[in-house]
Amino acid sequence: MLQETLINATKAGAAVLAQFFNQKDLKISNKEGVNNLVTEADHASEKAIIETIRATFADHYILSEESGELVMDSTYKWIIDPIDGTVNFANGIPICCVSVAIEKDGKMIHGAVYNPLINEFYLAERGNGASLNGKPIHVSDKKEVASSCLVTGFPYTYLDIPNGPLQCFERFIRKGIPVRRLGSAAIDLCWVAAGRFDGFYEHKLQAWDSAAGFLMVEEAGGTVTDFGNNYYSPYQPQILATNGKIHAEMLQWISGDKS
Ligand code: IPD
Ligand code: CA
Ligand code: CA
């Protein structure tokens, strides 16, 4: 029932995303930061997702990007990004998705990420693997960073810290290591899980960006930590998600121990 509702809620949000995609006169406003957009589609997707969850689990806790925390006294918490990749969405770039995860007693147990524009539905269940459109997926086999294909993202407001986003990016680019920037953290993580990318790192994410995607990587056989190699929590900002084999080396590149 839990997973069925997760699938239905994710599909309900994705139907809204697809309906608004490339629509003229889309209402767009700006949140805190430069070009941190929210559109009427984000709100409509969120409404469809929450209504679907509430119809079956009226007493579950919900954390959703645009509505914030809908606090309930429950061991279950749904974590929702109604559109991840909103800047892409608003520009007609079909790299955006709906991301929904379920946490129980502080542990992520289910995750779903759906990009209806290219019909890719990713699903993960703790202990039961990850799949793309029903077929099991696995992380890549790459063993060294020098031959890896990486992906990253940048925060809306630039983060001026030592070993910040541009310094790390520069390190890789100077050595000719490809680092892509898709603009959707949930899709970045799913593409690591599917073996398309060998690693993904980002300095500042929110829980809804990564909650479903990090479970996808773990269940596809990968490793996810913060930049200090601590067990990953979506409630802190840093993420390093890899195929596991390049993880230790990636930590060195990010800290500047290797360049
Ligand atoms: C953003 C995307 C992007 C990441 C940003 C996120 P949004 O989410 O995941 O890839 O770099 O940090 O905020 O705003 O499109 O939901
Ligand atoms: Ca997001
Ligand atoms: Ca969003």
Count of all domains = 2
Described by the principal axes of the CA atoms, the overall outline is globular
Bound small molecules, by name, code or SMILES, are: D-MYO-inositol-1-phosphate, calcium ion
Radius of gyration: 17 Å
The biggest beta sheet, please? 8 strands, mixed
CATH hierarchy, class of the largest domain: Alpha Beta
- What is the ordering of alpha helices and beta strands? HEEHEEEHEEEEEEHEHEHEEH
Total of DSSP H or I helical runs spanning 4+ residues: 7
In the sheet with the most strands, the strands line up as 4-3-5-6-7-8-9-10
Q: What is the residue-mean pLDDT, rounded to a whole number?
A: 96
CATH superfamily of the largest domain: Fructose-1,6-Bisphosphatase, subunit A, domain 1
Structure classification: alpha+beta
**CATH topology category name of the largest domain:** Fructose-1,6-Bisphosphatase, Chain A, domain 1
Helix content: 25-40%
CATH architecture classification of the largest domain? 2-Layer Sandwich
- The count of strands amounts to 15
Q: Per DSSP, what share of the residues sits in E-state strands of 2 or more residues?
A: 25-35%
First-last Cα distance:
48 Å
Q: Which ranges are low-confidence, i.e. pLDDT below 50, for 5 or more consecutive residues?
A: none
